[in-house]
Amino acid sequence: MNWQEFLAMGGYAAFVWPSYALAVIVLVANVVAPHVRERRLLRTIARRAATGDEA
Amino acid sequence: MAFVWFHKLGSPRHFYALSRRLTPWLGAITAVLLLGGLYWGLVVAPPDYQQGESYRIIFVHVPSAWMSMFTWMFMAVSGLMVLVWRMKVAASLMRAAAPLGASVTFLALVTGSLWGKPMWGTFWVWDARLTSELVLLFLYLGFIALQSAIEERDAAGRAGAVLALVGVVNIPIIHYSVEWWNTLHQGPTVTKFDAPSISLDMLLPLLVMAVGFMTWFATAVLKRARCDILEAESSSHWVRELATPGKR
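^ Those are the sequences you sent over. The predicted structure of the assembly is below.
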């Protein structure tokens, strides 16, 4: 099987590939987003602790 | 002994530390399973004798549909722990699960739609299976809205727990909808008491993807729950120490 044939998905490329693309976006985003948020939260808390700000 | 373990897990501090140790491993296992499952499902598995290559959508559609139901059950069980034991960690897990549930429900609906167009000739039909799954998406969105509408954390947690428990009624409706009502959607091929009516060549990559979605959920829900705990406990001593390592 060659690449062109694989990408064509037997004529269903317009349905198969968007499904997989959306799945990848949803799965990756839901891991990356909390990762970034946790680091940001820890930085904010560290800054507050350093300045002695209770709020 | 069991009580000590349960008590430790109920402490946000211990839960946070345990979660931090677990998520790198869970994330690595998820990557291996999903990449392996994608290759197996897209390249190795044979085309379907009726649906040709279009059936390959099954490898993302079915795991996300299963996870959409599992996630609500997870929230309901966490909600029960919130109401019975006032467990803060359970409330964090319940809150953390909701956007993940909404994500997989959305994914199940869109991939189902993209599969329905070439096979049924339509993106959408207001039948029992599709409609009850859409109701599930609205339940998730309602839960998320409820959490942001109530300022006080514990009150928001209890209100969310009640919604999670009441919403469970929709789960058997989704599952049995294809048997109770006439529908375009096919009946269950894997989760039935007989042997699954799907070839092993297709079933095995499907199961690998399903387990991958489970470990993905575990990774993401633990990471999100950690953020929730940090926000709730931002002024407590252990969080400050955690944020400023090496400083006393």
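Chain B has a mean pLDDT of 90. DSSP finds nine helices and no strands in chain B.

Shout if you want it in another format.
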